[in-house]
Amino acid sequence: MRLLFVLPLVALGCSQTPGANDAGTDAAGVDASSDASSDAPVATDSAADANGCTLQAAATLSGTMLGQTLAPKDAVSYETHTTEYEAVVAIADFANACSLGNDYKASSNVLSMVYVSASQPLSAATFDLTKTNVWDAQYAQFDATCNSSQGESSTAGTITIASVDACGIVGSYDLTLGSDHVTGTFTAPNCDNPADGGAGACK
């Protein structure tokens, strides 16, 4: 089986090497036509001013899922808003996850946390999964042909969002998935515009 949702992972939308004048407009209105040469910090750049982003992907995970240990190599996120507010944080045991686009990574493991709300964008807070239906966590093991016959979903736990903005999502989690229990943290830079769904290739 595939994941219950398509995990569109495309090129990072936030530069990891800020400093260049990217002609973005600062939220503070300090320079209406372009950035200062040193670029303004994330806190004062507008959401469209991607070159102000400095988040570096990082994640930790303690515990096992379906008898396997997921050693994080990347953490990415994306946010969309069409008819609903949606945000996804994915922790993967392979690097350069955003470069996959709509494709799947062979012989990989992914823990994904999915937020969906009809009315509220994601904000900093602690969410108890037994008291809200806006979050779900899913774990999938992909084999050499990118099929996932092994997977599980969260049944309890908490997800804490420390910060969320145009550059990414930072937080922690304490999750029960079936009989498994995992905890950890994530700093997940946003991938650029998510891919548009559909089955991807196996890479």
What labels describe this entry?
0% helix; mainly beta; 9 strands; 203 residues; 9-stranded antiparallel sheet; disordered N terminus
Break the fold down into its secondary structure elements and pairings.
Blueprint: E1 58-62, E2 74-81, E3 85-92, E4 108-117, E5 125-128, E6 135-142, E7 150-165, E8 168-177, E9 180-189
Antiparallel strand pairs: 1-9, 2-3, 3-4, 4-6, 5-7, 6-7, 7-8, 8-9
Structure characterization notes:
With 203 residues, the chain is mainly beta. The two termini are 17 Å apart. Strands 1, 2, 3, 4, 5, 6, 7, 8 and 9 form a nine-stranded antiparallel β-sheet that branches. The radius of gyration is 17 Å and the shape is globular. The protein contains no helices and nine strands.
Radius of gyration, rounded? 17 Å
Distance between termini? 17 Å
The averaged pLDDT comes out at 79
Order of helices and strands: EEEEEEEEE
Specify the overall morphology: globular
Sheet/helix structural class: mainly beta
How many helices? The count is 0
